[in-house]
Design a protein that fits this description.
single chain, alpha/beta, Rossmann fold, 2 domains, seven-stranded parallel beta sheet, six-stranded parallel beta sheet, 13 strands, about 35% helix, disordered C terminus
């Protein structure tokens, strides 16, 4: 039995790609062989193979996991294969949020929405959040959809123990992490920075993530310039693990302003580092953070400012570590343990070549490390 994980694209550093790669490590801990398949991938990235290879290599004893978040031209061919099949559903971004600056992606999301009824053909559908599962209401029985966060506790960011104290900075810092694309509403984070400045509260904003849309990046730079805070904004681009960890260690809090999130891994990462999170409601991000960090989706940005100021002391020279956030993050991580996935495989009848004892042993080790 081989676990065959496929997606339209698998790139290391991308949230969906990292999750697909994590399946391989998890399968090995469960005593299963695993392979990765995609149409788009970097050559040599953890052994990813062309998607066409899937259709020649799969056997009746195998299990396919399709990572689904956008239109997949191979979906019907995958469903026709004679083996057990699981769809991991990340959710689909509302095309209206993308239409102005990313019309091609908006079109693919529109086509994905039309594909959703096909998901009923899988042996199991697993969603990354309750919010995402509920988006399938009317297509699937929502209560039958498993909800498992799109992370694995062995991901390096979670295996690395949180620091005992934050790093020293000249001014309080806010952090935004994720692709710099329109629906993430980076401009709202910049505006919060300007509103803080109006109250004579000087802070900085670090923006980490790829910038695939030049027009949007240009808009953000001009927006920050108009508001008089461009010198306080740092577009860091893509970072390696060490530099990203340093951002989490040194920040005073994470802003998540997106109008669509299937889960929002950066919120979990920031809490793992003991940092406050400030999240716009109405997306799955609000499911994983404390209620006092969630703002109504329609709230004016001015309503965010007093709460942010309360958590960020402009006189402090250190970014503190809050143990309550670390504990909260640990609880979320348990929802994605090896045991959770083992039970899903058992429920669909995929047990050939499956090592129960090995799975249990590794889960115990992972839990001990996290504790």
């Amino acid at each position: 039995m081989t676990l065959r994980v496929c997606a339209p694209d698998i790139f290391s550093g991308d949230a969906v790609g990292n999750h697909c790669i994590g399946f391989v490590r998890m399968a090995e801990r469960l005593g299963m062989a695993a392979e990765l398949y995609a149409s788009g991938f970097d050559e040599g990235t953890n052994g990813v193979r062309p998607i066409e290879a899937l259709f020649t290599q799969v056997t009746q004893k195998d299990v396919i996991v399709l990572s689904y978040s956008i239109f997949d031209p191979h979906l019907e061919r995958i469903l026709a294969l004679d083996c057990k099949k699981i769809c991991y559903f990340h959710g689909i971004t509302d095309p209206r949020l993308l239409l102005a600056l990313e019309p091609r992606t908006a079109q693919l999301c529109e086509k994905a929405l039309a594909q959703l009824p096909l998901l009923a053909g899988f042996d199991a559908v697993v969603a990354n959040s309750r919010n995402t599962a509920e988006s399938l209401s009317g297509i699937l029985e929502v209560d039958a959809i498993k909800v498992v966060p799109p992370i694995f506790p062995d991901m390096f960011v979670f295996r690395r123990d949180p620091p005992r104290k934050g790093r020293k900075r000249h001014e309080p810092n806010l952090l935004m992490v994720g692709r710099v694309v329109p629906h993430k509403r980076i401009e709202d984070g910049i505006e919060i920075l300007a509103l803080l400045k109006q109250r004579e509260f000087i802070a900085t904003l670090s923006i980490v993530g790829s910038t695939p849309n030049y027009d949007y990046l240009k808009f953000l730079i001009n927006h920050a310039r108009r508001l008089g805070v461009l010198e306080q904004v740092d577009f860091k681009g893509m970072l390696d693990d060490a530099d990203l960890f340093e951002c989490y260690e040194s920040t005073n809090g994470l802003l998540a302003m997106s109008r669509h999130e299937g889960f929002c891994v950066p919120v979990l990462e920031a809490m793992h580092y003991g940092k406050p999170v400030f999240v716009r409601g109405g997306t799955a991000a609000e499911e994983i953070c404390p209620r006092d960090g969630v703002f109504d989706a329609s709230a004016e940005l001015s309503a965010w400012v007093p709460v942010v100021m309360e958590h960020l002391d402009h006189r402090a020279s250190w970014s503190p570590i809050h143990a309550a956030y670390v504990k909260h993050a640990d609880g979320i991580l348990l929802r994605a343990s090896d045991d959770v996935w083992r039970n899903i495989f058992v429920e669909i009848g995929a047990t050939n070549g499956f090592s129960h004892s090995r799975a249990n042993a590794n889960t115990v080790v992972a839990t001990t490390k996290r504790g």
